[in-house]
Amino acid sequence: MWPKETINAGILIIGNEILSGQVQDVNLSFMATHLQEMGIRLKEARVVADVEDGIVTAVRALSSQMDYVFTTGGIGPTHDDITAACMAKAFDRPLVCSLEALRRLYERYPSPRAPEALTRMTVMPAGATLIDNTVSAAPGFQIENVYVMAGIPAIMQAMFKNLMPTLRKGPRLHSREVVGAVVEGVIAQGLEDLDKAYPHVEIGSYPYWISETNHGVRIVIKGTNENEVTRVENAVTDLMDRYRAL
Amino acid sequence: MWPKETINAGILIIGNEILSGQVQDVNLSFMATHLQEMGIRLKEARVVADVEDGIVTAVRALSSQMDYVFTTGGIGPTHDDITAACMAKAFDRPLVCSLEALRRLYERYPSPRAPEALTRMTVMPAGATLIDNTVSAAPGFQIENVYVMAGIPAIMQAMFKNLMPTLRKGPRLHSREVVGAVVEGVIAQGLEDLDKAYPHVEIGSYPYWISETNHGVRIVIKGTNENEVTRVENAVTDLMDRYRAL
């Protein structure tokens, strides 16, 4: 489906709260949707704990394989916020205080009650570029091809929207859906034939199961060539109609 | 927080639909919650596409690092269901037809409309053990330390509940929460002091931000020693009260 010059992205979600089930992650699906709109392929996502080794290993692996890496979580002022230090370690850079981040924080909180804790959010790897935080001022940052953002969804989303215009865009992806109360196995052969006939179109088959009497399948068709996508969509609709009628 | 003999687990979520943002994953948080209850540490989760290389690499990496690996997705009857083949490749085993899986499927669907597609769900690595599927009969399977399950949440949850009694359990984890409309930075030093004083208790600080006038922090305290957890909980409550009063 993706052409040769595809722009690949990885996501790294940092936080014990996701791995303990305390918090349902919503950042992945938010970014996934926007990356898809920009024609950027999200190739892999990882969720790791607030532990240095795990973060450093994962960010190095993703950074070397992807064009862009987006991380969320661990950039606040408390002892368990270790993302900035891990990024410095992963890219072998010293940690510095960003004077611009400091200026922004003091502009927003002129007489902070915990000035030292506030400064923790200005410490980042040397050479990092700030990512604007229009919600609570404390910026994210970019280091090499890695974009380091907050974990709080409202703040992460604001940061991501700010950096979206700066990302390279891929070819526009056309996406169609055909849903029907058809048993997946019945149309499997037809789908496989279509999959072979249209190698540049991705055909995903996602069964749903609500109850014994209410289940079926959702077929998602995607590609950069709109004509091909439309042809596959029509063929899948015919396939569904044929077996629904039985 | 976790003692030396900790049981570690990894999760591998397989599916283009999650990486494209089409589907919000809910399997991770379901398993995360239950693993925590069983005293098993979920150390890392990965989300990969329906692509052989990515699946094989990820499952090998997780299988070698963890005691248990749980995968979801890609075991249906269509062309994009390649998980079983990838597991065979990852563990260098031939693919066979599980006669017991075949028996179960025919028992449930005595005159299948697409018998060939049905048999796809019986193909698995040699030596695999079946995981019961009480919802739609097609079983998952276990191969070495990897448990391969369906992606549909209702089916995955039924499979996971069936295999839970067979897993080793870790020490019971005690977990407490203290929530307050306090700026995170203000209690950062107090939290850090507690974190140092109680090295076996994990103190997580999770800020929330609903609006400019409604934000605060949720502190999650966890450990296997209930007395220590209670002491930290009381100290955090005092800390919150002190700063809330200001």
Give the helices and strands, then pairings.
The structure is a homodimer of 246-residue chains.
Chain A: E1 7-14, H1 16-19, H2 27-37, E2 40-48, H3 52-65, E3 68-72, H4 83-90, E4 95-97, H5 99-108, H6 115-120, E5 123-125, E6 129-131, E7 140-143, E8 146-149, H7 153-163, E9 174-180, H8 184-197, E10 202-211, E11 214-223, H9 226-245
Parallel strand pairs in A: 1-2, 1-3, 3-8
Antiparallel strand pairs in A: 4-5, 6-7, 7-8, 9-11, 10-11
Give the tags:
246 residues; alpha/beta; elongated; three-stranded antiparallel sheet; 9 helices; Molybdenum Cofactor Biosythetic Enzyme, Chain A; 2 domains; six-stranded mixed sheet
Q: Please state roughly what percent of the residues of chain A sit in beta strands, choosing from under 5%, 5-15%, 15-25%, 25-35%, 35-45% or over 45%.
A: 25-35%
- What CATH architecture label of the largest domain in chain A applies? 3-Layer(aba) Sandwich
Largest sheet of chain A: 6 strands, mixed
Q: Kindly provide the radius of gyration of chain A, computed on alpha-carbon positions and rounded to a whole number of angstroms.
A: 22 Å
**Regions with little confidence, pLDDT below 50 for 5+ residues of chain A:** none
Oligomer: homodimer
Derived from helix and strand composition plus strand pairing, the structural class of chain A reads alpha/beta
Ends apart, CA distance between termini of chain A: 32 Å
Q: Mean pLDDT of chain A, nearest integer? A: 93
CATH topology of the largest domain in chain A: Molybdenum Cofactor Biosythetic Enzyme, Chain A
Give the total of beta strands of chain A. Answer: 11
Which pair has the most extensive contact?
A: A-B, 74 and 75 residues
What is the number of domains of chain A? 2
Q: What overall geometry of chain A do the principal axes of the alpha carbons give?
A: elongated
CATH class of the largest domain in chain A: Alpha Beta
